Amino acid sequence: MNGFEYIITKQIDWINRNSINVGLIGKKELPYTNTFNENLFEPLHSEIKSEIEKGDGGELKDNTKYPAKMRAVHSSSAIGVNVFQYWKNKNISEIAYSLGLCSKKNQNSQEIKFEQKFTISDKFSHSPNIDVVIGNKKTSKVKVFGIECKFSEPYKGKSSGLKEKYLINIPKLWKNIPNLHEFAKTISPNNNTHRYLHSAQLIKHILGLKNKYGKGDFRLLYLWYDVSGDAGCKHRKEITEFAEIAKQDNVKFHSISYQELIIKLKNKFYKGNEKYIDYLADRYL
After folding, report:
1. Above 80 in pLDDT, residue 189?
2. pLDDT for the residue numbered 159
């Protein structure tokens, strides 16, 4: 069983345990819920819905061939909403701490937003979306925590490379990050280094956040779903490799798996959050 099949099997178990109504879509007969809210712990808040609709993923739109992506039980946008929407009007510092982004005493985190864009260069017409952004107080040294959320995508096929336009005649982009610059050259235009980690996407997020805040005023987190077997092992190795390169440039990058996060939430913040944490544990552990 490969990584993608492992995730689908886990989600089918959740469907069966909880009598969730789904339809089987496409040649692979992948399960999709009848509405995207049926795929979520809580109905999608109107503000978050608006933020996601402004993103480029088309997460909430049905088309002639496929339902909205957020209706897929293996959707990364759905798991992201299931984890983060709950904290929108609560103590955001508790989820930030659980992610390893700050100390337990830190109370600087003030807001959570979805599908935010940070301009890399005015020479580019498009800026990539960061799945989740936690905004901190203006007086905080670290202004934002950017979070890239991955569920089943790393296990579907080879990750794409970095387009050559990012490496041509824009030296300002790479100021103070020489090691990431050299690594970027090795994955452009094709990424033959990392199969599971979409390192080109992470580099673009770093470039956008650095352009907005400067190198030292942001953290980038890779939040991912671990799987058993060879795929999980190689994915973890690729994450470690990328983290070492970022560290050499003093870029604040780290990672945590969804499984680690859920266990930490259960150990530290279960009281008062029982239904939320039980849902995450039942579905994703």
Report:
1. yes
2. 87
The pairing of beta strand 129-136 with beta strand 144-149: antiparallel
Enumerate helices (H) and strands (E) in the chain, giving the number of each. 9, 7
Going through 118-242 in order, the beta strands assigned E by DSSP cover: 129-136, 144-149, 218-224
Is 132 in contact with 112 (CB distance < 8 Å)?
yes
Using DSSP bridges, classify how beta strands 30-33 and 22-25 pair: parallel, antiparallel or unpaired. Answer: antiparallel
SS3 assignment, position 221 = strand
In tens, the pLDDT along 191-203 reads 999 999 999 999 9
pLDDT value, residue 121? 87
Q: Enumerate the domain spans of the chain.
A: 3-284
Is the distance from CB of 102 to CB of 221 less than 8 angstroms?
Answer: no
pLDDT in the model for residue 158: 84
Q: Do residues 107 and 93 lie in contact, with contact meaning Cβ atoms separated by under 8 Å?
A: yes
DSSP string, 58-92: -TT---SSS--GGGBTT-HHHHHHHHHGGGTTS-H
The pLDDT of 218-223, averaged and rounded, is: 98
User: In sequence order, which residues have a C-beta less than 8 Å from that of residue 86 and are 6 or more positions away?
Assistant: 41, 42, 273, 276
User: Angle of helix 229-248 relative to helix 199-213, nearest 10 degrees?
Assistant: 30
C-alpha closest to that of 209 among 86, 91, 272, 118 = 118
Q: What is the distance between the alpha carbons of residues 45 and 122, in angstroms, rounded to a whole number?
A: 32
Residue 172's pLDDT band, with cuts at 50, 70 and 90, is confident
CA angle 150, 152, 154 (to 5 degrees): 70
Residue-level length of the chain: 285
Phi then psi for residue 144, to 5 deg, are -145, 155
